[in-house]
Design a protein that fits this description.
The strands form four sheets. This protein has a seven-stranded mixed beta sheet with strand order 1-20-17-22-15-13-14, with no helix packed on it. It has a seven-stranded antiparallel beta sheet with strand order 2-3-4-11-6-9-12, with no helix packed on it. The chain has a four-stranded antiparallel beta sheet with strand order 5-10-7-8, with no helix packed on it. It has a single domain, classed as Jelly Rolls, CATH 2.60.120. A hairpin with a 3-residue loop joins strand 2 and strand 3. Helix content is 0%, strand content 52%. The chain contains no helices and 22 strands. GO terms for molecular function: metal ion binding.
Length: 239
């Protein structure tokens, strides 16, 4: 099954200090038919105004990943972690049995844009943890670059964030006409999100900027991903 969710179908809002769009039920947007995709619970596309953000608030038993697209995002929590993340950086927070944190735009003059992803954990009640990693943006070109993974790959500490769930988050940039392939293992799901540009999938489905697709139980496990024009996208391999 290949289901496309156009960008315009998301729940969007503008609070002045915060502009965003939700791909799944979240906060004031509630749809009982759109609460999850496998362990994926949230895909929020947010822009936070300079100097603004979220005050101290709690989380528990949730894996939270923030991917900064531009600007500077500042994290601070009650376990002593403080970090500022920019493009090329990933924040991963495992809330475990409980964590309190704040999240703010670190700049007083520029917006910060980010994708925030929430996943239910593989194991509940763990000790809370936080990790900030960084990848070389040049490595995004022409391949699917893993930036978050459920299985730690030796030698990738600081580059690939470890997560308490059996999933992998890839980022990729392709030039017009360039193509990569991804093989979807049996029983697995794929979530595609186009950050900018357009992507043709399996020669027939075209996704534009901020469109997403949820793919499961496809008869052909190999996904062909071809850039219609310059494209920046995210692919998540999920159970």
């Amino acid at each position: 099954m290949f289901t496309i969710y156009p960008a315009a179908s998301r729940f969007s809002f503008d609070k002045g200090w915060l502009r965003g769009s939700h791909s799944f039920s979240f906060a004031e947007y509630q749809d009982e038919n759109n609460t999850a995709f496998g362990p994926m619970r949230v895909c929020n596309d947010d822009v936070i105004a300079p100097g603004r953000g979220f005050g101290a608030h709690p989380h528990s038993d949730m894996e939270i990943v923030s991917i900064v697209l531009y600007g500077e995002l500042r994290h601070e929590d009650n376990h002593g972690h403080v970090a500022v993340t920019r493009f090329g950086g990933i924040q991963r927070m495992s809330a475990g049995h409980g964590i309190i944190h704040t999240e703010h735009n670190a700049s007083q003059t520029e917006d910060v844009s980010l994708l925030q992803l929430w996943f239910s954990p593989h194991t509940r009640g763990l000790k809370p943890s936080y990790e900030a990693t960084a990848f070389n943006p040049e490595r995004l070109y022409g391949q699917l670059l893993p930036v978050v993974a459920g299985k730690r790959v030796p030698g990738t500490e600081g580059e690939i964030a470890a997560i308490n769930q059996d999933l992998t988050i890839y980022l990729s940039k392709l030039q017009p006409g360039e193509q990569v392939e991804f093989t979807q293992a049996e029983g697995r799901r794929v979530f595609l999100f186009i950050i900018e540009g357009s992507l043709r999938v399996n020669g027939e489905h075209i996704l534009q900027g901020r469109d997403s697709a949820r793919i499961e139980q496809e008869p052909k496990p190999k996904l062909s991903l071809k850039a219609e024009d310059s494209v920046f996208y995210m692919l998540i391999d999920l159970p």
